[in-house]
Amino acid sequence: MNVIWANYPLNDAVHPQDTSLNFLAQYALQYAGLQGDRYFRFLNQLRQTLPVVTFVGYMDQEGDAYSHMEISPFTSLIKDYQCVQYERLFGLDDEK
Fold first, then answer.
1. Above 60 in pLDDT, residue 1?
2. How far apart are CA 77 and CA 73, in angstroms?
3. Global pTM?
């Protein structure tokens, strides 16, 4: 279970049924009315297609689960995510 605390009502906020830890910052920024950098914008787009991505696997919008060990229609998207993560951790990107 994930919890985001607010001291005020989040009436207009989108409350995801399922999500993963890597996307919690996107929701916090959205609730605060802030925009993130390119990395956060990438994650925001990724969560529209794959709302759950964990070290074990990922789940699509229909609730179908996939393992990182199998080929799926989302394999190229997961590879892109891995590259973006690597760049974020080890790259020399000016906008972090």
1. no
2. 9
3. 0.76
